[in-house]
Design a protein that fits this description.
35 strands; 19% helix; 4-stranded antiparallel beta sheet
Length: 681
């Protein structure tokens, strides 16, 4: 016990010392990630006097290793100040309001909770009350508009037979047959009945919303609680709360996410993919209640537009507000149902927003720029003005940050490709610099021209070390419309990767980048690109970082937890229908071409891209490649790192890999030391 306390004491002293050193240098470092706060959720009080919001707060190294915290704050609009509501070692999600504007609701594990529960906290005196007490975690919840009903999703309990076997030491797992249903429950807060009513059984509910009159619930429901089903096989149902009767509202063919009733209860809007084979959940549809149209008969509000819809809310019975990815920008828009054109409220280049909430003419927004991560903003529909309300990282004002720009270049077939370019911090015109290419995952995601520094994105950290950082939105990405996304369907790593090469050549030909000092890295699909770069295109890259990346598509397709999603939205055919092509698009096939030093990293519990993919790439390069290779495993981590120590290790280790091979005159047949000398870093 004393040894652990002494260790935490030493870590704390070092961590504070390291931060002081880096602060004096006025540059952004890997260690600054462990003090970088950002706003996550917002919710406006019904009386529009307050905005509740949550803040991501990194877990310091002085704490026992684990995931980061999320704290609750309250912004007082009248006094223009924030009040701390819940801090400590808490993780607050799903904030809302009840009893007018008197109480904030949320999901958390507090005190000695074994499972996440719904809580409320009083704005006046901060009294916290548990509103559920289940033997399984509450996953989602909502109160009816009148506040009389609480609905929530929770997993069913382990059955008695399984429980007895576990107690007797029989802990064998039966793969994909022991999932627990995600059940929907409703609790009438005004009745004498103590137990909630279970509305579903034998299916899984992934999202839902009360109708404005509180008589129905619209829900996304799939037959099984499996990841593939949550992606591809949800349909929209209406559930009568009194009878529990469930009726199919819409049989949609592919992915579907957010849903929201119109204020008058006559329509339901939702965001979905445009077709079964569309990988991006980025089109907006509106159904009448009751619905008599098939999915194909509905109007697609994104349609052939060159943007992707990411978040929606109703302004009134006839008007929808939505966030849209517009290339590397994100805009706030409004559009009347039935009309074809949108009005842009917050134009490109102001802030990049991820979440927003509306009450009357007031909108709360999480927004970031290239100079700061997400903060709380307000926007008023009456005058169109927006204001930044919080400063979660005042220390950033004394940090020198590099310039960042949107770039547009032509691919070899003439198609314009957009990307984001972060300049070296002390950039001098006429000099050539090393380049780190960051590839986003998905591929159905996009990089925006906002804050691009995180544990797995090098942004300002690399810029401070003298690198350009290039982040291309290659075809198949979201943000450019359906046709752009579908460019990569069934053609993985074809024109997608050529877009990246063309972007690198654009920077080389512009005189900015040294062609012999180009590195590449990314996670998941981005790791797939990095593995392809280290094998098929190895002559172009001096260093590669492959994080939870794909090496062998033949076996990846048989070991992932989303084989149907992979089939429907990426390949369009099964491996046996074209085995040669699937193997041809597998980086490990070209291991013998490798001359690129490659760092491979991933979690030992990754179900999306099985850890065997990293092992296959490592062994392929070790046995047949001609450059150094290292495999780093993170125990217990899944498809991405959660623990503070794993995140810091990843950022320090990958940054050191790029520095070693892209800068200086270190021997290219050697590797950096396998252990991180934290005091040295």
């Amino acid at each position: 016990m004393m040894q652990n306390l002494f260790r935490h004491f030493l870590i704390t002293i070092f961590f504070l010392s390291a931060n002081n050193i880096y602060s004096q240098e006025n540059i952004f470092t890997s260690y600054d990630l462990l003090r970088l706060n950002y706003v996550v959720e917002t919710s406006i009080s019904p009386d529009r006097k307050f905005i509740a919001y949550t803040v991501h707060s990194p877990r310091p190294l002085s704490d026992i290793a684990g995931p980061h915290y999320r704290h609750l704050y309250l912004y007082d609009l009248e006094n223009a100040e924030s009040v701390e509501m819940i801090r400590g070692q808490s993780f607050i999600t799903s904030i809302g309001w009840i009893q007018g504007s008197e109480k904030i609701t949320f999901i958390a594990k507090l005190n000695d909770d074994k499972y996440s529960q719904v809580y409320s906290i009083s704005v006046k005196d901060k009294e916290i009350i548990a509103m559920t007490n289940r033997n399984s975690s509450v996953l989602k919840y909502q109160f009816s508009k009148d506040g009389n009903q609480l609905a929530y999703i929770a997993n069913s309990l382990v059955n008695n037979t399984k429980q007895k076997l576990l107690q007797a030491g029989f802990d064998a797992e039966i793969y994909e047959e022991e999932y627990l249903d995600r059940n929907l429950y409703v609790y009438n807060l005004k009745s004498d009945r103590m137990a909630p009513q279970q509305l579903t059984n034998g299916v899984s509910v992934f999202d839902f919303q009360f109708s404005p009159d509180g008589k129905q619930i619209a829900a996304f429901i799939a037959d099984k609680n499996l990841v593939d089903y949550s992606y591809m096989f949800k349909d929209v149902y209406l559930i009568d709360i009194n009878s529990g009767e469930r009726t199919l509202h819409l049989d949609n063919p592919g992915k579907i996410e957010q849903l929201e009733w119109s204020p008058d209860g006559r329509h339901i809007a939702f965001i979905a993919s445009s077709s079964l084979h569309d990988a991006v959940t980025g089109s907006m549809f509106v159904t009448e209640v009751p619905n008599t149209k098939t999915f194909d008969e509905l109007f697609n509000y994104a349609g052939n537009k060159n943007y992707t819809i990411r978040k929606l809310h109703w302004e009134d019975e006839e008007t929808l507000l939505f966030l849209a990815e517009d290339g590397v920008d994100i805009t706030l828009n409004k559009q009347k149902i039935g009309e074809t054109e949108r009005t842009v409220l917050i134009k490109p280049g102001i802030i990049v927003s991820k979440e927003f909430n509306i009450s009357g003419d007031l909108i709360s927004i999480t927004g970031n720029t290239s100079m700061h991560p997400d903060e709380l903003y307000s926007f008023t529909l009456i005058d169109g003005k927006h204001s930044r309300l919080t400063d979660s990282n005042p220390w950033l004002a004394s940090v020198n940050l590099a310039d960042q720009k949107k770039i547009i270049y032509s691919a070899r077939d003439g198609l314009e490709i957009e990307g984001v370019l972060t300049y070296p911090l002390n950039f001098i015109e006429g000099e050539k610099y090393p380049l780190v290419v960051y590839i986003h995952g998905g591929p159905e995601h996009a990089v925006s021209n906002g804050w691009q520094t995180a544990y797995n994105r090098w942004g300002q950290i690399a810029a401070a070390k003298g690198f350009f950082v290039f982040m291309p939105n290659y075809r198949s990405s979201s943000s450019r419309g359906i046709d752009f996304t579908m460019e990569g369907f069934g053609k993985l790593l074809g024109s997608e990767f050529e877009d990246v090469i063309d972007g690198i050549d654009y920077l080389i030909n512009s005189g900015l980048v040294d062609k012999d000092r180009v590195g590449i890295g990314g996670g998941s699909y981005g790791g797939y690109f990095a593995a392809w770069a280290a094998t098929k295109y190895s002559n172009r890259f001096a260093a590669s970082v492959v994080f939870v990346g794909i090496a062998d598509q033949v076996f990846k397709r048989l070991t992932t937890d989303i084989p149907y999603e992979d089939y429907y939205v990426h390949w369009g055919f099964w491996t046996y229908e074209n085995e040669d092509f699937v193997w041809e698009r597998s980086p490990v096939r070209y291991a013998k071409n490798n001359v690129t030093p490659t760092l491979i990293l991933g979690g030992t519990m990754d179900a999306r891209v099985h850890p065997s993919q990293s092992l296959a790439l490592y062994n392929g390069l070790k046995l047949h490649g001609q450059a150094p290779v290292r495999l780093v495993r993170y125990p217990g981590e899944k498809h991405g790192n959660k623990k503070n120590t794993s995140r810091l290790d990843y950022n320090l280790r990958t940054m050191r890999w790029f520095e070693y091979y892209l800068k200086g005159d270190k021997p290219k047949d050697k590797m950096p030391d396998k252990y991180l000398d934290i005091s040295f870093e």
